[in-house]
């Protein structure tokens, strides 16, 4: 239900750059295109059941570590990584990223590369000072997190603490890329109504500074009326690039 609400039309409409999913993919593609964010390991915090956030990253790292609190999400990621039938069809996302990156690469090649680099799928709890239970060794060169921290934090203080906790997985000088919701208090997944801490742009900036990050880029997207489908009350989406 979560995948259907957020990663099928109308939200996952690739006919225009004005829609939210193409906006998110472009933020990531443009940031990774600089070539500055690269290294051995990228950790994705709170991957959920999705892989779209990793498509531009996979060209720049030897290994991608996906993480999620829920076993059901980790199992879904594992099935996709192994190419098992019946998993969510991410091919429209992969095709779109290949188009905007402009390398002329067959989308199947990018899919194969991401599957090959998604080598570890680990449990994580962002509310623990040591989110993985043991330190990531060596620390990650980059950290990515999309729509996780605000969705698992009961208040702004917990959000800021969680950001500091996951920041400990990153080496000094490493880069953090965050995508998240602005002004959202809940979202629906089937019969479940899940709470979210409503964030303003200043909340995100303050939490990053408090966790020892220097902000490099900040972008925001206002959710248009056509995409306010009732599955949540989100006002917009933010993208932040920060450096530890």
TrEMBL record:
It comes from the Eukaryota. One of its GO terms (molecular function) is phenylethanolamine N-methyltransferase activity. Keywords: Methyltransferase, S-adenosyl-L-methionine, Transferase. S-adenosyl-L-methionine binds at residues 46-47, 52, 68, 73, 125-126. Belongs to the class I-like SAM-binding methyltransferase superfamily. NNMT/PNMT/TEMT family. This is PNMT methyltransferase. GO terms for cellular component: cytosol. It holds the Pfam family NNMT_PNMT_TEMT. Gene3D superfamilies: Vaccinia Virus protein VP39. GO terms for biological process: methylation.
């Amino acid at each position: 239900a979560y995948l259907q609400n957020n990663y099928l039309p109308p939200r996952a409409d690739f006919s225009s750059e004005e829609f939210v999913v193409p906006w998110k993919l472009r933020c990531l593609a443009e940031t990774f295109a600089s070539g500055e964010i690269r290294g051995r390991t990228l950790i994705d915090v709170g991957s959920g059941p999705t892989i779209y956030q990793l498509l531009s990253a996979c060209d720049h790292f030897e290994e991608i570590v996906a993480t999620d609190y829920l076993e059901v999400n980790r199992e879904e990621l594992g099935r996709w990584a192994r190419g098992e039938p019946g998993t969510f069809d991410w091919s429209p996302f992969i095709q779109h990223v290949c188009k905007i990156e402009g390398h002329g690469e067959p989308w199947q090649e990018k899919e194969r590369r991401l599957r090959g680099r998604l080598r570890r799928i680990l449990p994580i709890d962002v509310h623990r000072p040591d989110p993985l239970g043991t330190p990531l060794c060596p620390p990650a060169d980059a950290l990515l997190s999309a729509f996780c921290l605000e969705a698992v934090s009961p208040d702004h203080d917990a959000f800021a603490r969680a950001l500091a906790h996951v920041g400990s997985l990153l080496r000094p000088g490493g880069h953090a890329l965050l995508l998240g919701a602005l002004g959202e208090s809940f979202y629906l997944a089937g019969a479940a109504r899940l709470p979210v801490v409503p964030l303003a742009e200043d909340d995100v900036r303050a939490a990053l500074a408090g966790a020892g990050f220097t902000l490099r880029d900040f972008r925001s997207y206002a959710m248009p009326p056509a995409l306010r489908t009732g599955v949540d009350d989100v006002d917009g989406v933010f993208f932040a690039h920060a450096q530890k």
